[in-house]
Every structure is written in C-alpha cells, then in structure tokens.
Amino acid sequence: IKQVLGSGVHAVVKKARNKQTKELVAVKCVDKANMRRRQLAREIEILTTVSHPNVISLKDVFEDEKSVYLVLELVQGGELFDRIVNDGAFSEKDAAKMIRKITDALMHLHERKICHRDLKPENLLLTSKGSEADIKIADFGLSKVILGEKTMMKRSCGTWAYWAPEILRRQPYDYSVDLWSMGVILYIMLSGVHPFDPDGRSTDAQIVERILRADYKFDPEYWAHVSPQAKDVIRHLIHMDPMQRYTCEQLLQHPWVAGILSNALKLYVNSFVVEQATGCPTARCPVSH
C-alpha cells in the first residue's frame, strides 16, 4: 500500500500494488468501527453486478479485524471537480464527449434498476491528466437498487446542491433525479459556475430556494460563447417537472450530445471565434472563405 489518494468520513482511499501481478490499484479502506454496514454492502453489491467502461470497476474485497478493503480500478486523472477548478470551463466539444460517456454509463445503471443518487463532479473521475482522458462514475455508497417498475424512493441522500426539487421537498422520486444532477454538472462544465450559486456568495437558504423554483439563468458573462443547442440540453435536464426531464436515451439522442453539429451551430461557434479574434461583430468583419 502506497500513498493516500483521498479520504472521507468513513473511509480512506490509498494507492497500492498487487504483489503478484504488479498492477497498480486503488484500495478503499473502510473502518469497521465507523462503517455503515448496509451502505457498504449495497456499494459492493452494485459494483459486483455492474460492468461498463465508464463505471469504476471493483476487483476484489477482503477484510481483517479492523477494516473492510475494496480493491478498485486505479484512475489517476483526479476528480472532474478539480479539473474544472484548475482549468476552467470545458469546450462544448469536450463537454459533449464527457456527457455522452457519463450518460451511457448512467443508462447502463438505470437499465439494471440502479439509481446513483449522488452524481456530482467529485464523484466523476478522470483516467489521466491529459485532454484525452476518459471519465468514470464512482462512489456508489448512496446508490439504490429499485425493485419494481413503480417503486419510488423517498430518502433524502446525496449532496444537496445537486438535488432535484422533489428530493428537497421530501417527495417520492425516481431515476430522473440523476438526470437533474447531470444538468447541473453540464452547466458547471460549460460555465465554471454553479447554476444556483453563480457568484459563489449565496446562502444555503438562497440556493435551496432557487433549486425549488428551478430558478437559474444563462448570464452572458459566462454563456455568451455557448451555443443555443448546449443550453437546450440543460433546459431539458434542469427541469422542474420530472416527467418532462430527458431520460438517458433522449439525452443521448440530442444532436449536441450525439456530436452531430448542425450547420447553424457550426456557424454560431465560428462566428464567436471570429468576433473574439477581431474584436468586432462577425457580420461586420471581413472573413475569407
């Protein structure tokens, strides 16, 4: 076992090497004295049954007198959160590629009756520091396996800044809460700010009130360069009515997410690039074709 990669209230994640294969792995060390047994058992059950290139994989589980150890796939690019903090907003092309992969993994989970319930940039891990990094969903401690088509969940869990309004209202909810969280994540990826706390100075009460009303804006300071198609995706995710939110399948079919840029979008992006480079509106700038 090597250096510590991260730590939480109930566990520490360390980098380790398999003595036989020499493979580098991540080991989640859960203290038995403080662990939540049901939560840990659920996480192990889910990771054991799920196999997807964009979901962190579980390689082994073992225990001793003091701890339970989850041997996980090692990814070394850090959290999506840190990438945004360090490098700023993503380009639309890169954001769409990331969202496409996360959504495909999320659809895989939903098809297996699994609702993640804690999607946030801190739980999305990058495989490397480079621009071609892959992305993986991690931390299934708060996930839930839904038994039956009409089962609705009622327990409030996860990080509340990414919660859908129905969770804050303590109303029954379903898989659509994961899509709301995806909308908040995409908003942050494209702007570098939170939709319900854009200046970073709002109180918790103000943020909650905005979430309950789905009250957010596309401030030109952060959104002037972002295409209408990208904003359209967000509007279909951060939607008050769960029944009107995109499903994973609908999200993957959206042209922006699918990577099918229309001529209108290409013109929009190109015009913005020209305006930024020349300092004058595109319509009045001589452009050679």
Automatic annotation (TrEMBL):
Pfam families: Pkinase (PF00069). Keywords: ATP-binding, Kinase, Nucleotide-binding, Serine/threonine-protein kinase, Transferase. ATP binds at residue 28. Residues 1-257 form the Protein kinase domain. GO terms for molecular function: ATP binding; protein serine/threonine kinase activity. InterPro entries: Kinase-like_dom_sf (IPR011009), Prot_kinase_dom (IPR000719), Protein_kinase_ATP_BS (IPR017441), Ser/Thr_kinase_AS (IPR008271). The keyword Transferase applies. Coiled coil: none annotated. Belongs to the protein kinase superfamily. This is Protein kinase domain-containing protein. It comes from Guillardia theta (strain CCMP2712).
